[in-house]
């Protein structure tokens, strides 16, 4: 009965939310006017240990294309983004303020953008057993704008303009996904009798997690004279902002030095805007109809700790995976010869995932007489207590019964199930057929098939040379290192591909 309970418990190693709900993220660093900004970097690893006391960045380099005259004009300047902070746990519903201030001009200073948008955003948190959702609706409270061009000055008539913005954020165990829809009509007064109307609509998709974040907008802009049924200018806009961490090994050059090299982590950002003018009020060359602009700030580099005392791994197939785990401080146990062949226990696997996904253990750093004990086999004195409790609070794990089976080896199907659920993409494994493509499909437990199928479709779960997934075998620490490193690599780079190409 105990082993059955252990399996049930591992199925419940779930799903909501590696990303702290108090740090929810629905984007907005580029604003919502079709421009791009440099955005913020992902945090340094050092930030987990030292409070730098650096204020959060709110002013960003900004670029936008102006199309009101019928031809593209690039403007460069700044966007100031101010969003109210909310503790969604203490306040599961309420409102906060958002302000976006844009000041930009072209190279000659003859086209100038001045724009301020103020929103009051209402939100509510919808709790689920396996995830949380945050629903937001934003109401425009103030909108001032003027665009000066050599031909005309366009002044927003705010009373005759409308703006709608609504978003849903889905907070899964390791990744917070969001979808924002915007639709607005901006009516501009000109020196002529006829006003100009710019209608913009589209979706914004994005995600945020410790290793990368992306915001991808897909907008359609239709510009016409007042009351015109035929649009004079139609433009497709695709602004994309990406920040990520990449890892590379840096060998040391001097011969008499105590270490042969170390891993460096590069913090990268890039923002691109591609546009396609489908129709225009002016005759344009093909070169002017399509184009792109770019913001690419300098990369930041940080050194990670040296992977020490791992010489016994030389030549092992998982040597690099294990060394990366130690350098990223996802593995913290003292290295010992033969550990690569030892079984990875459930408790240690949860600890590694907590460290990989930056789940805070601060609440349980100091144990008191009132500290709770959820699982019978995880007392407050257990060295893994703070990780198990942090994972429990974050809804990464939950118990059925009284024991967590903390020292039981974790099987491949259990690890793969968590592996897919941590990125929240298990829905991709729903098919008409309950069968996976692996030759030992019949050995896969029904509760694991959806996740394993999803992992196969994503290319992150593969069989061995014989096409087997070996679901009931326990995983070694070397295999755990490879599995977690594969997850981190996926979150660094591969997950962003569909967003960048959206």
TL;DR?
With 502 residues, the protein is α+β, with helices and mostly antiparallel strands. Helix content is 17%, strand content 34%.
Plain-language structure description:
The chain is built from nine helices and 15 strands. The protein is of the alpha+beta class and 502 residues long. The protein has two domains: 210 residues, no CATH class; 224 residues, no CATH class. Helix 4 packs across helix 5. The two termini are 48 Å apart. The N terminus is likely disordered.
Give keywords.
alpha+beta, 2 domains, 15-stranded antiparallel β-sheet
Mean pLDDT across residues: 90
Give the biggest sheet: 15 strands, antiparallel
Q: What series of H and E elements makes up the topology?
A: HEEEEEEEEEEEEEHEEHHHHHHH
Strand content: 25-35%
Q: Indicate the percent of residues in helices.
A: 10-25%
Radius of gyration: 26 Å
Briefly note the structural class of the backbone: alpha+beta
């Amino acid at each position: 009965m105990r082993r059955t309970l252990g399996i049930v418990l591992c199925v419940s190693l779930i799903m909501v939310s590696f990303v702290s709900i108090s740090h929810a993220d629905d984007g907005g660093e580029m604003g919502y006017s079709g421009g791009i900004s440099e955005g913020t970097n992902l945090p340094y690893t050092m930030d987990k240990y030292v409070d730098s006391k650096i204020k959060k960045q709110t002013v960003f380099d900004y670029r936008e294309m102006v199309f009101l005259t019928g031809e593209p004009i690039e403007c460069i300047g700044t966007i100031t983004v101010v969003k109210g902070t909310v503790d969604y746990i203490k306040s599961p519903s309420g409102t906060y303020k958002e302000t976006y201030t844009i000041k930009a001009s072209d190279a000659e200073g003859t086209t100038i953008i001045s724009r301020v948008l103020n929103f009051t955003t209402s939100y509510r948190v919808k709790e689920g057993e396996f995830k949380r959702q945050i629903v937001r609706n934003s109401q425009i409270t103030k909108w001032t704008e003027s665009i000066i061009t050599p031909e005309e000055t366009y002044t927003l008539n705010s009373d005759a303009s409308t703006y709608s913005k609504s978003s849903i954020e889905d907070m899964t165990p390791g990744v917070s996904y969001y979808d924002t829809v915007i639709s607005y009509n901006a009516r501009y007064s000109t020196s002529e009798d006829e006003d100009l109307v710019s209608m913009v609509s589209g979706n914004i998709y994005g995600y945020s997690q410790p290793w990368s974040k992306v915001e991808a907008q897909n907008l359609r802009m239709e510009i016409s004279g007042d009351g015109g049924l035929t649009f004079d200018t139609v433009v497709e806009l695709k602004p994309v902002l990406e920040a990520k961490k990449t890892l590379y090994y840096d060998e040391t050059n001097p011969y008499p030095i105590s270490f042969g090299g170390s891993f460096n982590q590069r913090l990268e950002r890039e923002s691109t805007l591609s546009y396609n003018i489908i129709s225009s009020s002016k005759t344009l060359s093909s070169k002017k109809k399509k184009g792109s602009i770019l913001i690419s700030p300098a990369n930041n580099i940080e050194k990670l700790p040296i992977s020490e005392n791992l010489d016994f791994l030389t030549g092992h197939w998982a040597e690099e995976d294990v060394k990366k785990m130690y350098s990223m401080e996802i593995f913290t146990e003292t290295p010992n010869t033969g550990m690569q062949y030892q079984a990875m226990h459930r408790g240690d696997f949860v600890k590694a995932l907590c460290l990989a996904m930056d789940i805070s253990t601060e609440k349980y750093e100091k144990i008191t007489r009132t500290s709770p004990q959820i699982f019978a086999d995880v007392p407050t004195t257990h060295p893994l207590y703070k990780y198990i409790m942090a994972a429990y609070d974050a809804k990464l794990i939950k118990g059925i019964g009284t024991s967590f089976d903390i020292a039981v080896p974790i099987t491949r199907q259990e690890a793969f199930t968590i592996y897919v659920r941590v990125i929240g993409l298990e829905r991709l494994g729903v098919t008409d057929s309950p069968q996976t493509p692996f030759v030992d499909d019949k050995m896969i437990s029904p509760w694991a098939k959806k996740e394993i199928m999803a992992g196969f479709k994503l290319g992150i779960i593969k069989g061995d040379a014989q096409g087997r997934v070996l679901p009931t075998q326990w995983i070694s620490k070397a295999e755990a290192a490879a599995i977690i490193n594969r997850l981190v690599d996926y979150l660094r780079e591969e997950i962003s591909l569909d967003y960048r190409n959206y």
